[in-house]
Amino acid sequence: MNTDSIATPNRRFFLRATGISLALPLLESLGGRVFAQNAAVGSLAGKAAAASFPMRMVCIGNLLGFYPPAFFPTKAGADYELPESIEALKPHQKDFTLYSGLDHGVKGGHFAMSSFLSGVRTSDAKGMPEGNITVDQRAAETMGGATRFPSLTLGSESGIHGGCLMSWTRSGTRVPPISTPRELFQKLFINEDAKSLAASMDRLDLKGSILDAVNGDAKSLQRQLGQRDKEKLDEYFTSVRDVEKQIELRRQWASVPKPDPKMQEPKNRDFVADLPVMYDLIALALQTDSTRIATLEIGGDFEASAFGLGGGYHGLSHHGQRPDAIKGLIKMERYQVEQFAKFLAKLKSIQDGSGTLLDHSMVLFGSGMGNANAHTNSNLPIILAGGGFKHGDHKAYPAKGPGRQMLCNLYLSMLQHFGAEVEAFGTSTGTLTDLA
């Protein structure tokens, strides 16, 4: 059977429905759309009937990196000893690869943190072909309407930079995060009543009409502008198209019931106590095919006081080599890794076709900060788990010269493994050739 003949009408309908030019969804996403609708009515059995088991992507980062001596092993290759901060990952050592020597070649300390998933600082975005779009949002562009949520962005809206900096669109817009487990639960699993649904559809229609009018006015204005103003207007059009796509996707899924998570709505506590619940909800979102892409930033509300520590997380990361501060920092880092390890165990426990959810999920864990005490963005702490790759090694790359690898090479490899038709990403120089 020629799958192209089936996929093409669906793709063309979606393009006509939005009235704009969108990146075409991949064939595997169209195949997964049937499962997404099955899952949306609470039928996890729909997965067994689906012809393909799609790849997922989860990216987890923190604002302040990890204390390097307690994160990086002293030995490269297999059978290395896990340092103090990552000991909790021992049961999963064959399920992940730990990298050293990867970074984006940028400087700026905290002000370069926003480059973690893009390789591009926000201040440098205009000089890049795709701006500072992050790897999760680039993957989300391939999804079309295959899932209710093309991606989920989770994190805090407080902290030293005033908000989550994990995800960015190609128009340079920060993706605001979902900050609490209750908000995430309601977004994923609570259906609107008939009256509220009708009101939501009216709002979507109104927003669409407003965008049509504004877009038409802007296009008329464009003919009167100089080149520099035309470039600014092009950025505006990109933002408008992003909103139009969101409206169309929400309209498409508005009448499809959300899945039943078989759990009670969680209560919000604090970010430290809520972190395990956020991980559980991400796993449920993947399992029900509500989304295939999620990011989680740990930072702003990750309070040292929850661990009986003073000085704050930020203050402890700038430890000045004080033993007590380093001890407290490692305590906080160990907790983060413990929750990550439980998340991996959760994904391994969920059957997904002939494999597990972890087999079909690439899970990135790390930070855009290498050494917070020195404000460096080099040698970033990076772990990649799952995804069906061969794991178990500590891969150590040189900081410069022959063998040097950019972190975006890993991201390019992940995007291609996800199914994105892309030959470059951010500051990539190629794929990570030893990722098999």
Task: Outline the structure in words.
The protein has 436 residues and is an alpha/beta fold. It folds into 2 domains: 27-189 and 263-418, Alkaline Phosphatase, subunit A (3-Layer(aba) Sandwich), CATH 3.40.720.10; 192-256. Helix content is 38%, strand content 9%. Strand 5 and strand 6 (355-356) form a beta hairpin. Helix 5 packs parallel to helix 8 and helix 6 (194-222) runs antiparallel to helix 7. The longest helix is centred in the middle third of the chain and has 29 residues, at 194-222. It starts with a helix and ends in an 18-residue tail after the last helix. The model is unreliable at 1-51 (pLDDT under 50).
Offer a few descriptive terms.
disordered N terminus; 9 strands; 11 helices; 7-stranded mixed beta sheet; two-stranded antiparallel ribbon; 2 domains; Alkaline Phosphatase, subunit A; alpha/beta; 436 residues
Top CATH class of the largest domain:
Alpha Beta
Poorly predicted segments = 1-51
CATH superfamily of the largest domain: Alkaline Phosphatase, subunit A
User: How many DSSP H or I helices?
Assistant: 11
Number of strands: 9
Helix content: 25-40%
- The residue-averaged pLDDT reads 83
Describe the global form. Answer: globular
Structural class: alpha/beta
CATH topology (fold) name of the largest domain = Alkaline Phosphatase, subunit A
Sheet with most strands: strand arrangement? 3-4-1-7-8-2-9
Strand content: 5-15%
Gyration radius, to the nearest Å?
22 Å
The tally of structural domains comes to 2
